[in-house]
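Page 42, continued from yesterday. The earlier attempt failed because a stray header line got pasted into the input along with the sequence. Redoing it now with the clean sequence only.
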Amino acid sequence: MNESSNAVAVRVEGFRKTFHTQRPALNNINFTIREGERVALLGASGSGKSTLLRCLCALETGDAGAGGIELFGKSLQRHGKVASDVRALRRQVGIVFQQFNLVGRLPVMSNVLTGLAAEVPLWRSVTGRFSVEEQALALDALASIGLGPQAFQRASTLSGGQQQRAAIARVLVQGASLLLADEPVASLDPESTRVVMELLLSLNQTRAMTLVVSLHHVGLARRYCERVIALRDGEMVFDGPTSALTPAFTQSLYGQAASELLEDLEEGSSVSHAVNPVVAGAVALADS
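This time it went through. Structure tokens are written below.
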């Protein structure tokens, strides 16, 4: 985190989200995230993590009369209504999902260029007519995360880890300041998980990108994030340093569900500040 920055990236106040007539999926959520922070959303299945992330980019709206969300000092949604300038705010927010959301039959670079969709005329985005400069930006983004040689392959030919890195390259092209990642490594093998998480760490450290990552295991939160917001049944049950997430404390928060979160927990909570060679190019991209 950039300690010298006091600017607020995300502010959530009294937020509630209810689907149909069920109990609230999110209830009275309150927190502030400052620019450059690296925050893990932790919780067992059904705790509300994915719903919260979707609300943070206004893919979902809260209940009428129930709180609001601000991004970078501007209202994103309040009392169940999305702000009129939501498109401008969304340009600052990159979203990475577990499913990658790439079009398999298209080249990797074409998928990455969709990160510019909000910046170019609709006809150019639909027909794939991007300028030489825009294509160079996409190639630089892919090269920075070690996927330059795969730029013109069909996205479907990439491994799961490579596809997730391509999705992150799309966020780089977009120029987002805030990255929301919803279980980005849930379907990946351990080595791919490490590479993707170190890439996210690198983006935070080299670009001061604010990072909010939904994770399913305490071990990953402790290794790669400095702060955790823990959810249980739609309620916030903890907001503090990840170093506090010892097995005993996690057990006290989640009871029997704690076993779902404690897989592969390592006692060491520190993260190396050395940038992995696979993602070292992100520094050059940030300076270009």
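Notes: Residues 190-207 form the longest helix (18 residues).
Reminder to self: strip header lines before submitting.
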